[in-house]
């Protein structure tokens, strides 16, 4: 069982930046592909970014490419999502997730989820 806890959310003005962290309670963090998803009110949870076990491969949804960066530190059992040039449409609850697969962008392939952290971008 892997427990994930997100942090770093908050209220920010459009154009601002936030860095989300996802701490994992496992010593085998490096065997999990990690992902970030988000869910806005009234919408389904959607893929944002994913990173492979080694950190060598990353994937992004089109709407965040060039603005968001996913990374991981396997020594610290932590994944990150650096969010720059934030827009009001980025407002959502952000979730990190862990998959036993090398890397995946598919929500159903993730085995463990954090409780989420709220990100609100004001215009």
Structural summary, described in words:
- By secondary structure, the protein is an all-beta fold.
- It has strands spanning 4-7, 10-13, 18-24, 33-39, 46-51, 58-60, 68-73, 78-83, 92-99, 112-113, 117-122.
- The strands form 2 sheets. Strands 2, 4, 5, 6, 9, 10 and 11 form a 7-stranded mixed sheet that branches. Strands 1-3-8-7 form a 4-stranded antiparallel sheet, with no helix packed on it.
- The chain is globular, with a radius of gyration of 13 Å.
- It starts with a strand and ends with a strand.
- Most strands sheet: 7 strands, mixed
**N- and C-termini, Cα separation:** 40 Å
Q: How many beta strands in the DSSP annotation? A: 11
SSE run: EEEEEEEEEEE
Estimate the strand proportion.
over 45%
Structural shape: globular
Mean pLDDT: 97
Proportion in helices: under 10%
C-alpha Rg (nearest Å) = 13 Å
Structural class: mainly beta
Which stretches are poorly predicted, pLDDT < 50 over at least 5 residues? Answer: none
């Amino acid at each position: 069982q892997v427990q994930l806890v997100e942090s770093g959310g908050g209220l920010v003005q459009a154009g601002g930046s936030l860095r989300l962290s996802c701490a994992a309670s496992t010593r085998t963090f490096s065997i999990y592909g990690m992902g970030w998803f988000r869910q806005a009110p009234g919408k389904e949870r959607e893929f944002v970014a994913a990173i492979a076990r080694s950190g060598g491969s990353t994937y992004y949804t089109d709407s965040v490419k060039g603005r968001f960066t996913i990374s991981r530190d396997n020594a610290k059992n932590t994944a990150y999502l650096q969010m720059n040039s934030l827009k009001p449409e980025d407002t959502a609850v952000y979730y990190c997730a862990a998959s036993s697969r090398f890397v995946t962008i598919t929500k159903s392939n993730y085995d463990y989820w954090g409780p989420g952290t709220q990100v609100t971008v004001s215009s």
